[in-house]
Design a protein that fits this description.
By secondary structure, the protein is α/β, with parallel strands linked by helices. It is built from 13 helices and 16 strands. The chain is 38% helix and 16% strand. Helix 6 links the parallel strand 5 and strand 6. Helix 11 runs parallel beside helix 13. The structure holds pyridoxal-5'-phosphate.
Length: 439
């Protein structure tokens, strides 16, 4: 039986309507910013394979670090035992984060990093004999697919069958903005006003606020300004509300700085990191918090301890990949490459917008996004599937989020490759417009 037939027989793919989806593509290898299928066809990975890849596929430095680590220790349980890669990575990470984020809790994916942060925040108040119950999140947010993360992401629209099982969360609007947006300040005021109202009515019972800082990913790369986050944190912290930054997607350079939280003075109480953490090689995640939070879990009995863990917590291979990936930022002068990506995004999104094919062009670091003018805006719409297929046929791995086309390439992408991608996007959109887009 051909491989693809076996895939159809045995495998259930994520976020896929198997009945209507096009055939999945068997990828045999990857190199730098490209993936190759069994026929040798090349696909430029413009979305870093669900936002995980940083320095390119199968980067030899990370391969080497993994090989060395696998020969020494593949895994050990992380309660009662520890190991050098976990210790070294935690130390390096703490050195790079704002000073108060200094205690690293390992898990293995973005959803668990968020679950851990929310549980820590709730237990922080519980351990102090002041249990607070309410959580605040943002409309459109996506924090993962476990039940806690789904509750925080209830308004994303992904979780219809489960709504009766999700816990209550208060939602505030996300002041999304784009190039030449004259209403940004009004939107920020509305969001802050909604928060003020929640504080006025339930202030003493709000345990934490959770936000995807600077960019809401799955909602359609909705971007907000750092100055909004500054005020938001100030309001929360002066009202004793813990702040959780879900940087699962924004972490490791995507927004132009290593972490989005660097772009402001106030520091959140938690940061959740995953995706790019291993350079895209292995599942790994961390929830990093402060001494203040950590110390509230110390006590003479087990009852105040954090009873949460996963079998593959702090996997040594993942930690070795994470160390190698961090060192590549320096060795390969990644920040200079990121700047070039930023400039190309700016030039080409502006040009595309001038053609009238797209609107609401926006950029944040190495992320660029724009809305295709079409009435079907929902995730998985027929239009977004057709666009995805058209891009794939032209050798681009792009997955529109509803009517939003976005690019978040690995940092090793060559300027010529990125320009080529924009040329193809314009070609594909021109071929579709306007009568197809109106369908
Ligand atoms: C901001 C954010 N948080 C959490 C998650 C969940 O991460 P994972 O898919 O690794 O569970 C995602 C995934 O897209 C994300 O974008």
């Amino acid at each position: 039986m051909p491989l693809i037939q076996k895939d159809k027989t045995y495998i259930w793919h994520p976020f896929t309507q198997a009945k209507t989806a096009a055939d999945t593509i068997v990828i045999t290898h990857g190199k730098a910013a490209s993936l190759f299928d069994a026929t040798g066809k090349e696909y430029l990975d413009l979305i870093s394979s669900w936002w995980v890849n940083l320095h390119g596929h199968s980067h030899p430095k990370i391969v080497e670090a993994l090989t060395r680590q696998a020969e020494k220790l593949e895994h050990v349980m992380f309660a009662g035992f520890t190991h050098e890669p976990a210790i070294r990575f935690a130390e390096q990470l703490v050195g790079l984060l704002p000073a108060s984020l200094n205690r690293v809790f390992y898990s293995d994916n973005g959803s668990t990093a968020v679950e851990a942060a929310v549980k820590m925040a709730l237990q922080y108040w519980h351990n102090q004999g002041n249990p607070k119950k309410r959580l605040v999140a943002f409309e459109g947010a996506y924090h993962g697919d476990t039940f806690g993360a789904m509750s925080l992401g209830k308004s994303s629209g992904f979780y219809g069958p489960f709504t009766d099982h999700l816990f209550a969360v208060d939602f505030v609007s996300y002041p999304e903005t784009w190039m030449d947006d004259s209403e940004v300040e009004a939107k920020e005021s509305t969001s802050l006003h909604q928060l003020e109202q929640l504080i006025a009515s339930h202030g003493n019972d709000i345990a934490a606020l959770v936000i995807e800082p600077l960019v809401q990913g799955s909602a359609g790369m909705r971007m907000c300004r750092p100055q909004f986050l500054e005020v938001l944190l100030e309001r929360c912290q002066s009202n004793n509300i813990l702040v959780i930054y879900d940087e699962v997607m924004t972490g490791f350079g995507r927004t132009g700085t290593l972490f989005a939280c660097e772009q402001q003075q106030h520091t959140p109480d938690f940061i959740c990191l995953s995706k790019g953490i291993t350079g895209g090689f292995l599942p790994l995640a961390v929830t990093v918090t402060s001494s203040k939070v950590y110390e509230s879990f110390l006590g003479d009995t087990f009852s105040t301890a954090f009873t949460h863990g996963h079998s593959y917590t702090a996997n040594p291979l993942g930690c070795a990949a994470a160390i190698a990936s961090l060192s590549l930022f320096v060795e390969e002068q990644t920040f200079a490459k990121m700047k070039v990506i930023e400039l190309i995004h700016k030039e080409r999104v502006t040009q595309l917008q001038a053609t009238g094919l797209v609107t609401q062009g926006r950029m944040c670091g190495t992320i660029a996004a724009m809305d295709v003018k079409c009435p079907q805006t929902q995730y998985g719409s027929g239009m977004s599937q057709q666009l995805k297929e058209a891009f794939l046929a032209q050798g681009l791995n792009l997955r529109p989020l509803g009517n939003v086309i976005y690019l978040m390439p690995p940092y090793c992408i060559k300027p010529s490759q990125l320009h080529y991608a924009y040329d193809i996007i314009q070609k594909v959109l021109t071929a579709f417009a306007p009568q197809d887009l109106a369908r």
